[in-house]
Amino acid sequence: MTESSDTPLLEMIDISKSFGGVQALRGVDFSLRAGEIHGLVGENGAGKSTLMKIIAGVHHDFQGTMKLDGKPVRFRSARDALDAGVGMVHQELSIVPDLTVAENVFLGTQPKTRLGTIDWRRMVRESREHLAGLGIHVDPTTIIGELPIGLQQLIELARVLFSGARIIILDEPTSALSPPEVELLFTTLRRLRDSGRSMVFISHFLDDILSISDTVTIFRNGQKVITSPVAEIDKRQVIEQMIGIGHRELEESYTGEITLDTQFDAPVIMETRGLSHERTFQDVSMQVRAGEVLGIYGFMGCGQIELARALFGKIRAQGVLTLDGKPIKLTRTSIARQEGIAYVPESRRSMLFHHEPLYKNMSISILERISRMLLKPSSEREIARGHIDNLRIRTPGPDQLLGNLSGGNQQKVALAKWLTHAPKVLILSEPTRGMDVGAKEDVVRIVRGLRDKGIAVIVVSTEPETVLSLADRILVMKKGEIVREFAGDTVSKDRLLEAA
Ligand SMILES: Nc1ncnc2c1ncn2[C@@H]1O[C@H](COP(=O)(O)OP(=O)(O)O)[C@@H](O)[C@H]1O
Ligand SMILES: [Mg+2]
């Protein structure tokens, strides 16, 4: 082994970073060698993106030392980092939808002619070549926003992969890609590695991480837990390090086994057979029974959010959907509502009326404006007062504007109306995201109350804790398909992660 391969290309020493009161990174050491693919894993919020944004020049106020080729550096901007050979593909897509494919591939680095104008012919020719290298055959003069999202993501990747950067950081790049596209990407990454480039690859898909990386680093709660050659660690060990088995805090949040209280004899309310939607989910067959909470768990981008939307007619899926045994076509959300299907989306903003008082938001009339005449404001207020007490909504009273409530209390309001106007099926997407522990417990209680009224509840989430605390039965989705069911037996956070 030569001496140079032992000196890290990039070294991060004792890095700390906070955002206001949030300590995102605490004393992190991290190093990257020339010609390696370095996998980075950790739960949401562990600090992965923050460390990578420091390396890529996005965040510049941090504590600690960063060395490139053994020399201390500090980038002041992403441009600075790029000039030093560090490129990053961010978690959020950053293409410019109104520009052509070629312009996006060369964003900020357009080739110039000898006259100093943009060399369009070269741009089109080279972007066509770059993209072909990734197996993408698309006319570079197409407006990128008109292409499918997976293609847009590949083109964004192509921009950084072919920018000539020595260090390439990919932050969850595969979430919108189909399996063949992931294979193409991996082939390209291996080729770049063999030419001496270094890559950091962040992903929730542990199988992907373990197959593409040479080295893996695990983050937990703002700290680096371990760095290991991939050959010396397996999936089980990665999961254990990620969630920190033995941690008291995490044990309280269902690290241990829980037993699912699955009902097997209640009537089936909703059923799907072979439900598919373009690239987002395929061949989903499932049932949900009266008085049951069905949890659907999967990583971001695995199709569960789209499935929830399809069950409410927000997007149109192929396949069979039955309600009370009768096939229905959900071509519009209004049909779903008439049939007794209710949906509380992950962004509750779209469902609630922030400038209206609480009591109106708790009433069905705000959704079904036509039937507004059916309820007198006085009775609406009366019902609302009852909910405020029962659901422990922190507010002075039913006339308070909804916008003045905290997120957790708004969620309780969003759920309240279904207590008086029970739907047949209630679909909840990320029902406890971003809430404190107290509000989460209240939401769990409310959802159990709805279930006990005989409602078939479907809870879709990317957070294991959410499905573990709510569900009587759990389906795990992976890359658009249901891969596992937990029913009537024990389940734990690590087993969910392992299945996903
Ligand atoms: N720009 C920001 N402003 C405030 N807080 C942030 C910002 N970016 C990240 N954080 C917080 O820092 C922590 C680490 O986040 P992040 O690095 O994005 O984690 P990961 O990529 O591992 O999911 C989280 O608590 C997150 O909420
Ligand atoms: Mg991140």
CATH superfamily of the largest domain: P-loop containing nucleotide triphosphate hydrolases
Could you say which small molecules are bound to this protein? Answer: adenosine-5'-diphosphate, magnesium ion
- From the coordinates shown, what is the CATH architecture of the largest domain? 3-Layer(aba) Sandwich
The averaged pLDDT comes out at 86
Query: The biggest beta sheet, please?
Result: 6 strands, mixed
Assembly type of the shown chains? single chain
Top-tier CATH class of the largest domain: Alpha Beta
SS strand fraction: 25-35%
Count of DSSP E strands? Answer: 22
Total number of domains = 2
- Which radius of gyration do the C-alpha atoms yield? 25 Å
The parts where pLDDT drops under 50 for at least 5 residues are 246-251
Number of helices: 17
Shape from CA axes? globular
Helix percentage = 25-40%
Structural class: alpha/beta
N- and C-termini, Cα separation = 38 Å
Q: What is the CATH fold-level name of the largest domain?
A: Rossmann fold
- Provide the spatial order of strands within the biggest beta sheet: 6-7-8-3-9-10
Features:
binds adenosine-5'-diphosphate, 2 domains, six-stranded mixed β-sheet, 22 strands, binds magnesium ion, 32% helix, 17 helices, alpha/beta, Rossmann fold, globular
Structural account:
The chain folds into two domains: about 5-255, P-loop containing nucleotide triphosphate hydrolases (Rossmann fold); about 255-500, Rossmann fold (3-Layer(aba) Sandwich), CATH 3.40.50.300. Mean pLDDT is about 85; it is low at about 245-250. The relative contact order is 0.10. It has helices spanning about 50-55, 80-85, 100-105, 120-135, 150-160, 180-195, 205-210, 235-245, 250-255, 305-310, 335-340, 360, 375-390, 405-420, 435-450, 465-470, 495-500; strands at about 10-20, 20-30, 35-40, 65-70, 70, 85-90, 165-170, 200, 215-220, 225-230, 260, 270-275, 280-290, 295, 320-325, 325, 340-345, 425-430, 455-460, 475-480, 480-485, 490. A hairpin with a 2-residue loop joins strand 20 (about 475-480) and strand 21 (about 480-485). The protein is globular and about 75 Å long. It is about 30% helix and about 25% strand. It is of the alpha/beta class. It is built from 17 helices and 22 strands. A six-stranded mixed β-sheet has the order 6-7-8-3-9-10, sandwiched between helices. A six-stranded mixed β-sheet has the order 17-18-19-14-20-21, with helices on both faces. Helix 14 (about 405-420) runs parallel beside helix 15. The structure holds adenosine-5'-diphosphate and magnesium ion. Magnesium ion binds near residues 48, 49, 91 and 171. Adenosine-5'-diphosphate (ADP) binds near residues 42, 45, 46 and 49.
